Each structure stands twice: as C-alpha cells, then as structure tokens.
Amino acid sequence: SSGFPPVCHVGCGATCLCGRSRRRTRLSELRVAVCRGPLATVLCLHGINLDMFGKRDAKTYGTATLEDIDSALTSLAAQLGVKIECYQTNHEGAMVERIHQAHADGTSAVMINAGAWTHYSYGIRDALDILRCPIIEVHMSNVHAREEFRQHSVISPIAKGVIAGFGLDSYLLGLRAAASSLSATKLSFSQLEESPQAC
C-alpha cells in the first residue's frame, strides 16, 4: 500500500519469506518494516578534541562543527526510526563512565569517534568490550593516509565496522549501518516465517 517495491525485510535482496518477489536495493533506499515498540537508541560518542571541529585544520576535518554533526545525526535518526544520543568529552574517565551507562541502560548500538584515544586508550577499548551491542567506529579523516601512529586503532578489533575519510558523512554512514544492523537483528528470518504480516 506504500507504493514502494517489496524487499526482503532484512535487506539481503533475497526472496521475502512472505512470498514477495526478489528485489535488490541500496542501503540508502532500504525500507525496513519495524515492529511497533520503543525506539532503538544509538549512542554517538565524540572523543578528545572533537569539540574543536570547525575550528581546527579545515583541510583535514572540513568546516562542520560538532553541533552541525549532531544536528545532521538527529535529522537522519528521525528518518531511520531510531533515537540518537550524542555525547562529547575531553576526559577519558568521563568517556568510560558514559560507556558503562550505555551498558546499564540497554543502548542498542554505539558509534564512536574517539579522536586521539583511538590509538592508545585501552581503558576505553575495554569499556566498549563490555557492551553486547554493535559498535561502529567512525573518523572524519582517512586515518590510513595520515601519520603512522594514526593508522593503528585499539578499537577496530572489537568494532562491527569502521568508516573513515568522508567527513560529516562518515557519521551519517555509521548511523545508517547501525540502524540496518539493528533492523536485521530484530527481524530474524524465523520471526518473518512465523508471522510475515506481524509488523
């Protein structure tokens, strides 16, 4: 009734279990049927010095401010049907405590740009490893084309994926990936097979 072509509810492009025909779609066009209930919460963590976006090295980081990034994420989250919470700190202990809070409150997914902490903070890495939700690592710049020390991440081994080098779009792509991952988890094939019209 929506006028959109039917797609597999988990975005794999295969024939839907409710008998609909095969359709393939890009991530940006994916329409996922989500059962009614509380919105999934994605936590976006901004690390050390990232409050200076828009003021530091525009050639590397662009001109978008942290407020611009958070505003763009909020708009996209509404389109994707998820809730976004953004947090920035320059204090490592405060970042660890915010991650602990995410574990306690049942946060659905975490996006993190840890800034320079990416390369050496085992404290933040270990806090993230406590979580049982998807972790998406994002970076404004292409860290692999920069100084050698920036090419190593202690977070990447525990992340579901890493997105880097697209400026503000790195965050938006990360949010899309997080939302898609959550939808795929929520709508398992067994659920669709048992009640294809439940959502």
* Outline: globular
Number of helices: 6
The structure class reads alpha/beta
Residue-averaged pLDDT, rounded? Answer: 81
Number of strands: 5
Q: Span between N and C termini?
A: 14 Å
- What's the main sheet like? 5 strands, parallel
In the predicted model, the low-confidence regions spanning at least 5 consecutive residues are 1-36
Strand order of the largest sheet: 2-1-3-4-5
Rg is 18 Å
Order of helices and strands: EHHEHEHEEHH
Please describe what this structure looks like.
The protein is an alpha/beta fold and 199 residues long. 34% of the residues lie in helices and 15% in strands. The chain is built from 6 helices and 5 strands; from the N terminus they run E-H-H-E-H-E-H-E-E-H-H. Helix 2 packs parallel to helix 5 and helix 3 runs parallel beside helix 4. The relative contact order is 0.19.
Give a quick set of tags describing it.
6 helices; globular; 199 residues; 34% helix; disordered N terminus
Short description:
This protein is α/β, with parallel strands linked by helices and 199 residues long.
Topology record:
Elements: E1 41-48, H1 58-61, H2 66-80, E2 83-88, H3 92-105, E3 109-115, H4 122-130, E4 135-139, E5 161-164, H5 168-186, H6 189-194
Parallel strand pairs: 1-2, 1-3, 3-4, 4-5
